[in-house]
Specification:
Strand order of the largest sheet: 10-9-8-11-12-13
Radius of gyration: 27 Å
Pfam family, one: VWA_2
Protein name: von Willebrand factor type A domain-containing protein
Shape: globular
Number of strands: 13
Structural class: alpha/beta
CATH architecture of the largest domain: 3-Layer(aba) Sandwich
Largest sheet: 6 strands, mixed
Length: about 600
Amino acid sequence: MTTHNQTTPTLPEAQRGPAEKLLDLVLGGSAHLWHNRPGLDVNGVWHAAQGASPELVRRSTPVKPGLFVPAAVKLYRQLLDIYRLNTDLMAHFASYALTQTDWRDLKVATCALMLVQSHSGQPVREDDGAIAFLDDDFRVIGEAMILHYERKSTRMLTPKAVLRVAELLETPEIARLNREAGFGDPASRKAPLGRWKSVATKWLRLREQNLPMLQGLVKAGYKETLKRIARKAGYKPVTQAFFEVLGWKQKQAAAGHRSVGLEGLNLVKRERFDGLSEAEICEWIELERLSYKEVVGRLPKDLGLTPAIMAALLPSLSDRDLRILTPTLEELGLMSDAAIRARWEKAVQTATDQRALHIVKNVRSQELKAKLEEASDNAVKAAVAEATAEMDVRVMFLIDKSGSMEGAIEQSKEALSRILAGFPMEKLHIATFDTMGTVLKPKAASRAAVQHMLQGIKASGGTTHAAGVHALHRAGMRVPEEAKLICIVVGDEAGEAGDQFARAFRECGYTVAAMAMLVSVASAANRGNTVRTCAGQMKVPFSEVSVDQFEDPYQVPRVLKALMDAPTSVGASQSGWVERVMRTPLLKVA
């Protein structure tokens, strides 16, 4: 390994602008806020309690299922910081988060912030007290996020998300942050909820007025969630049909003010299927168009989920459900049915995350494992295609295999196996480097092919990033004039001076549009700054992300989109991903 004293273009934290902070949030914010199983808190990081090593248990604090507060506080603080620096950017980002991403926890957190932040359309007065104009009303964006509706779309808030917005705002640590930001009465003991109650009431009213929509939510398993939203919002239904659909028996309040739903309720009850035969249960499912969630908890214990019952439930399953339930379909022998297999394979093609890589562990068939890995590949292909739809993008991947990568190279391989298959092979150029560059080419655009390509790489030798650039040039890599070249380096950044790295691009005739760093270090002491300095020398956008972010199956497509639409850095004009966020129309209440 060779190191040099270098000047880094990276801004100090105090000088980092909202665009840089927003990008950091997206590239490094994979942590989930809600977990449905017991966990362990290890220095603010959530780990599953099941299967944890004794050493991890010893160093941790047990946490119950539900909101993981340290992750929620970290994310909300980041959002508040961006809001303080650029309120308009935060407003556009909230709109972007809902309509352009599938990041459920981010939608909840941004919605919560927009509902309580202080720009609420209040009058701004002249010195004499006359109203000069009205301030921007960005709380409307929070309302629109809750009310936004697209039939059969994942890009809107579910009932569970609507409830979680309030639960997040009521969390004492989040309420404290909001009071400190001036979003609520500092003397009040109640958490600031902003407009949540009023918009939750409107959200419930719309569904009460459209009973098929309300019935659909009940069938989807949201009955208890709807009740909790109604209680928290203090909702007063117009007719007793609301209570009937929810099967919600009512009694008079202590003050005696209730007038709806006290008499003549014809409650819709969801009885168990005890005593019914398999054929009768299937007939009932088809007659009532029942969902998987509605049925599984009502099945007789001596019968359980049978192939026939599962087949009857298939029309109610989304593509995502089908991918998740692959082990169940396999166990029930349904994957041998031609129609079911065709529907499942279609679902594989529509994957938007890499959760299939986790499902693989519970599948026996090698053929099905390969198909699930294909779903993972499809997710990154879709992310890359979306990010590069507006221009011809070529990608250069340079992989550090020098001696300083000992202990980190395997993590780099795993990250690369999750992302490289997303790029069109004719537009992807890969080289490893130590003091010599070696060009690599996967046999196919798949995770398996990438793993095969990387399996022989071992860490050894010195470090010259430029060697990889020269190796690709000698192998015939050329970039069309109209194309945009993004260089992504994987490693610890410790190597030659940045200006020497930059010189290699100029010598080879490559005009770099943006640079990114996938940071993989054996120890913090090994971290250099060759790539950052090079980006500064060339005055191009620079972004970085830790390779451990790619362990999260949901984070991979998000990171790729942000990297491919590279943000600005020192000396570069605003472009790329942040500009895409700012082009997102602000949500409005219809």
